[in-house]
Design a protein that fits this description.
Order of helices and strands: EEEEEEEHEEHHEEEHHH
Number of helices: 6
Distance between the termini: 24 Å
Structural class: alpha/beta
Length: 238
Amino acid sequence: MTALASSAETPKERAKTGIAGAKIPKPMDTKKVMTESTATSVGRSRNSGDFCTRWCGRQEVIKDHSILVVVSNAGDLPIIDRDRALVYSAEDAWSKALDRGGRFDFFGSTFTLPTQRIIGDLATMQIVVDHWLSSTQLQQNFPGLSKIQVRSRRGQSKAHYEPAGIIAIPLDQPWACKEAVLAHEVAHHCSWTAQLPPHGPHFRSALIQVAEVVFGVEAGLVLRASYDGAGLEVTHAS
């Protein structure tokens, strides 16, 4: 998702909409997408137009050009998050479509996309996330799905998910308070496993399901098409 840094935006204000007949935007040139790493997290900076951070617990993250290698302290084989840059690019295009909302041309069909909200306070975020997780679709497809705690975090560049079931959001950054950002982090919660890449097919399938719950089936179709346009496979998440 695109990390649009701005000084202020009204909490819970819906982004302005109304481009009739908007077509799905193409993912950006992923050759220009650079990755970064820290001792504990995998993420994208605000300056590079990035969206989220995936925390890897007590694992060490090693930078390998555009591929992120996560090495377990227990000596397990490396888990390579190869698709991260492509996933972010595809989701950037999807999020921009949700920013606009309105009529949408989709392979010869026309439907209406909702406009994603910006949710500016923790209490509302928690209520929204709890509602999503209680949906029949997510409960059936992800048995034993636990609750998530939403908290604020310092810094302006990243939002992140922690495997303990915590989403941390920099509340002073409107880009981080978008529904698409929360949906991405909720998808990490639904699909989290230490044995699979954080942004692999398993995660992508989970986000499509979360998108259907949050925005409707049409938004899930657009996200799937955006992944497909980037050459990204989607598998069943359950």
